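tool=predict chain=A
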Amino acid sequence: MVTSVTSLGKNGLYDWVIQRATAVILGVYFVAIIGFLIANPELTYSQWHGYMTSTYMRVFTLIALLAMAAHAWVGLWTVSTDYLTTRQLGAAGTPLRIAFQAVCALVTIVYVVWGIQILWGI
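tool=predict ok
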């Protein structure tokens, strides 16, 4: 069996499970935010600030941020391995795929670090 070092899971099934689990986390996070907005129709900045700076929301937002990074990585890795191949692009396929994956990894890391800085004020 061929194992790719750029895949998060051990094989396609694990990647599929990661994608679905992170989608559930992101969906629950979205519902929590929308629920708060609906429950507070006259929302003020101080209420929003209090909600988003509470410890449980910071932790939940961090979990959602990491879930988004994993979800995006699995999706973009799948797209790159399916469509950026030597079969579709000739000899340029492999270097293009590696460059694409490197850029995606770099952007994902930057977003996670930036998100942590925003959340925790580091």
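The chain has a mean pLDDT of 89. Residues 12-120 form a domain with the 3 helical TM bundles of succinate and fumarate reductases fold (CATH 1.20.1300.10).
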